[in-house]
From TrEMBL, chain A:
The keyword Transport applies. CDD domains: TM_PBP1_LivH_like. Belongs to the binding-protein-dependent transport system permease family. LivHM subfamily. This is Branched-chain amino acid ABC transporter, permease protein. The chain crosses the membrane at residues 12-31, 38-58, 64-85, 97-124, 144-161, 190-213, 225-249, 258-278. It is found in: Cell membrane. GO terms for molecular function: transmembrane transporter activity.
Length: 290, 389
């Protein structure tokens, strides 16, 4: 009994942290910047391809490949923000949906052309392969990557948003763009940077989660619902909310797999239904600080 | 490039045999030539056809084959029927071929039966498919065909208890049903049958709960690509191999996925109908021509199914002299047998389904680092056990 509960918690938390890593960037764009970004998975996929290329073609170590992934996703997002996305901040949500879903399809076609239509593995270094013995059971060693990165991301984002000048400007910009602009904040620049940070986090998540969500051209479309579920349940714009939601969804789905395998997927959606009918704004609502 | 060469070849052919004007036989090929299944099926289909044509030329003097490719990305019965109808009525095809998904193949059967269009199924692997039209022939496999020998092999190896874990969709359920039947009839015991949703990404919990049941072996059926990749990694990373729970699979280690599975795949044992490492002159010739035409292509079961399917088309076209004679064509292919790159195969004269060897293979790493399915045991001339029931 103890080992069953412990197993559910261990697997659930490990899975939840993978979910958190791949969707944390989306809570920045969707929640803070209020931009409906369905192309979030594309940046995670770019990160995955960048890391896979860095490791197999350039022979870089795993740590550097992670940095490459974040940089590649962030840089491409920065370019897209300047070229396309900033034109749509003040347009209706439907326009934003159309643009970003278009980007998803372009991403699918381009990655299929460049990397082929089958999946591309992100090779792990020797010390992350195989299983780690916890005494009463084994866990995949790779799961420590999302564990460490997920906690680091949570702390890093909190420090960045709450404790730096950039964070103050970003919060000012999303709460009242006009007032922020009149106070001399370069809001265009802030938005571009925030969008790029969201994408860079997605890139990291794409690599950290590649064992469970393998990198392939249809990645952005296949897992879109998963990303949206985490953000919606957690409360858009709230990092801690996404973190709690990811752990909750991960644990509930995992418990379903152990206890009632045929209903595991339903468990996830049932939980979503419950949480969102209780709190339509998600578990943690982002409130503007006055 | 190829179209140019084809054009030049046609021109030369036209000039050299001017008096006997070549007759063109059109074949409509339906498959996922774009989209998520193009890498595992659409591209291999085209490569198999083109490789066969490059090795064998035209079926006979004065008969030319023209392949018309139509894209059908996913299971979509309505569209499958419409495409088949369009190919027959508008493009005037004499033969149909392809079909990855069972629902599509079943939907097109009405057209094949009514318009009397001999059709070669390149993949759709539910047992029922071929019986849907008297003009259907299959050159791939059925799930019972590979699952029953795989169960037999598990019994031969002395496994007495098994847990089955399959993806919860048609083929997964078929594989589970025929494996469980064969395994229990042979005296084995199935401790649990788990059906995992198709959208599953984290297989760890399933494997942990299987580990608690301590079976001798784990029978698996998963679709290609991401699910197989995640499952095999999870099997290793949760320590099931160390716990002595053997992996028993069918198509999981097929060539299109094998290299990306990496070291986690080494030692996995599966029962299936084609390994690129099959040792025969036919397979060597096939692989050499494929590599010449498509340097990046992996010889895959789908490629060989299309290759043999093209052979079946050629046999039918030759027997009927290129004329539209559907009954003559089917009579010519029913009962035919030949040496395929996969080994000896034949078409059952009654069911028009394929009879072939099923090989037990183990994944090994070659000196150049590439992974191969090494054949270690052969179950000869296996029929479709699903139809016999």
């Amino acid at each position: 009994m103890f080992s069953l509960i412990a197993s559910i918690l261990i697997d659930g938390i490990a899975y939840g942290l993978v979910l958190f890593m791949v969707s944390v960037g989306l809570t920045v764009t969707l929640g803070l910047m209020r931009f409906v970004n369905l192309a979030h998975g594309t940046f995670a996929m770019i990160g995955g391809y960048a890391a896979a290329t860095a490791i197999t073609a350039l022979g870089l170590p795993y740590g550097l490949a992670l940095i490459c992934a974040a940089l590649a996703a962030g840089a491409i997002a920065y370019g897209l923000e300047i070229a396309l996305i900033r034109r749509l901040y003040h347009r209706p949500e439907l326009d934003q949906v159309l643009l970003t879903i278009g980007l998803v399809f372009m991403g699918i076609a381009l990655s299929g052309m460049m990397f082929g239509n089958s999946l591309v593995p992100v090779r792990l270094p020797e010390f992350l392969r195989g299983a780690t013995d916890l005494g009463f059971r084994q866990v995949p060693t790779q799961r420590f990557v999302p564990l460490v990165l997920g906690l680091a991301t949570l702390i890093g984002i909190w420090l960045l948003f709450e404790r730096t000048r950039f964070g103050i400007r970003l919060r000012a910009t999303v709460d009242n763009p006009r007032a922020a602009g009149e106070l001399g904040i370069n809001t265009r620049h802030i938005y571009a940077a925030a969008f790029a940070i969201g994408a860079a986090l997605a890139g990291l998540g794409g690599v950290a989660g590649a064992e469970l969500l393998p990198v392939e051209p249809y990645y952005p479309l296949k897992y879109l619902v998963l990303f949206l579920a985490v953000v919606a349940v957690g409360g858009p714009g709230n990092m801690l909310g996404s973190f709690v939601a990811a752990l909750l969804l991960g644990t509930v789905e995992t418990a379903g797999k152990y206890l009632a395998p045929d209903f595991a997927t339903i468990a996830l959606y049932a939980l979503m239904l419950l949480v969102l009918s209780w709190r339509p704004e998600g578990l943690f609502r982002r409130t503007s600080k006055t | 490039m190829t179209t140019k060469r084809l054009l030049a070849a046609t021109l030369v052919a036209a000039l050299t045999c001017l008096p006997a004007l070549a007759e063109t036989v059109k074949v409509g090929v339906v498959g996922p030539f774009s989209g998520p299944f193009s890498g595992s099926f659409g591209e291999p289909f085209r490569q198999g056809i083109e490789t066969y044509v490059a090795m064998n030329g035209q079926p006979a003097d004065g008969i030319e084959v023209e392949f018309i490719y139509r894209d059908l990305q996913s299971p979509d019965p309505g569209r499958a029927r419409a495409l088949a109808q369009e190919l027959v009525a508008r493009d005037g095809v004499q033969y149909l071929a392809g079909f990855v998904f069972t629902p599509n193949a079943i939907a097109a059967a009405g057209i094949s039966a009514q318009a009397k269009i001999p059709t070669v199924i390149f993949n759709a692997s539910a047992s029922a498919v071929v019986s849907q039209s008297p003009y259907y022939v299959r050159t791939s496999n059925t799930l019972p065909q590979v699952s029953v020998p795989t169960a037999q092999n598990a019994l031969d190896k002395g496994y007495t208890t098994v847990v089955t874990a399959v993806s919860d969709y048609g083929p997964g359920v078929d594989a589970e049903t025929s494996f469980v039947k064969a395994f229990t009839e042979g005296g084995g015991e199935v401790l649990e049958s788990i059906r995992m949703p198709l959208s599953t990404t984290d297989f760890g919990p399933y494997l942990q709960s299987i580990q608690l049941k301590k079976p001798d072996a784990l029978f698996v059926f998963l679709p290609y690509g991401p699910p197989t990749f995640s499952f095999v990694n999870a099997y290793r990373d949760n320590g099931l191999d160390d716990a002595g729970i053997a992996f028993v699979g069918t198509s999981e280690t097929q060539e299109v996925d094998l290299q990306s599975l990496g070291e986690a795949a080494i030692g996995l044992e599966t029962g299936y109908f084609y390994s690129a490492a099959h040792e025969s002159a036919e397979n060597d010739a096939f692989k050499a021509k494929l590599a010449e035409l498509y340097p990046d292509a992996e010889p895959n079961p789908a490629t060989v199914s299309a290759f043999d399917g093209t052979h079946a088309l050629y046999e039918m076209i030759r027997a009927t002299g290129g004329e539209a004679d559907p009954d003559g064509a089917i009579a010519a292919i029913a009962g035919a047998s030949w040496e395929s790159p996969r080994g000896p195969i034949s078409i059952d004269p009654k069911t028009r389904d394929i009879v072939q060897n099923v090989y037990i293979r183990v994944v090994e790493q070659e000196e150049n680092g590439r992974l191969v399915n090494r054949e270690i045991k052969t179950f000869e001339a296996q029929p479709d056990y699903g139809a016999a029931q």
